[in-house]
Each structure stands twice: as structure tokens, then as C-alpha cells.
Amino acid sequence: MAEIVVLVDENNNPIGTADKETVHTKDTPLHRAFSLFLFNSRGQVLLTKRAQSKKTFPGVWTNTVCGHLSPEDTTVTAATRRLQEELGITDVTIREVAPYRYRFSDSNGIVENEICPILVGMYDGDPRPHKNEVDEWKWMDWNEFLKDIRDNPEPYSPWSREEAEILTTKLPPIGSARH
Fold it and tell me: What's the pLDDT at 176?
């Protein structure tokens, strides 16, 4: 079944829909998405390495899960669905913490062009990733992750780097309080 995404204008007003498989090109129209960071009680963030089969940014380390909203989704319902589909994780309370808008091209010239709110959740288990979505995963200390994206940005998706910096202003210090 085709995954439908919501096309929007710069003010996030819906202007149409499209099949996700046809949207990501060298001239991708603006559409709705989300980006989720899961934390555990040890102050770590769950990072995933995008599967090599992904159309955009294959083999790149990124935040826990990203995805698109269907016409009937909220950011939280879309994130809940994709978290289960990609990583086999359920029963997580997710909340939106910051707005975000980006446009990046990958090494193949494919463009990501999204209004993409940043979400967070807490989870103390291990994922069961779907092999078509995730090649690898790891829990990484949040402060170590922040240092690594600054010192060694290349392995990470550009959105995860920018969003992590935004989160440093939106969340209490990781490990000192629950998010």
C-alpha cells in the first residue's frame, strides 16, 4: 500500500498529498514529517543507522526515528506508528518539544524538504529493528553524542545534528530531570 504524505506551504497549510515514493527527488516539494529522539533513564539517546536500502541518506547515523505524517496523523500518532514499524517499540509516551524546518540534499542529490517538529520520549528497553529500515542501533550518552556531532559531524544526518542543538535549549540537562 502506498504511503501518502501531506504537501504543505511554508506556513504548514495543507496544499495536497502525494505518494511518498514519488516525493523525494532532486526537487522535493515541502511536506510534513517528524523527528523523534528516545532517551533512557541513564541519560542516553537511541541512535539508528539508516538502512542502505533507504532512498535518502542511506547508511547515515541519525536520531531514533523519523517519518512522515499521513493526512489523518498528528506528529505523535505518526511517531508512535513509525517507532513500532521501524524499531518494534510500543508503549512510549511521546511529546512534541520544538518546531523545525529543513531542506538538505544527500550525496545522490535527493532532497529532504520538510516541516519536521522535534519529539522526545523515554524508553528503557532495546529495539527490535526492521532490517529494511535500520542497519544498526546504539544507545549513546547524550553529552557524548553532542560532542561527537560537533567534532565528527559527517557520520550523522544533518537534521539530527541541528535538532540535537535545538534540544539543548528545550530540555532540562539530560540525566538531571525526566523529560
Answer: 44
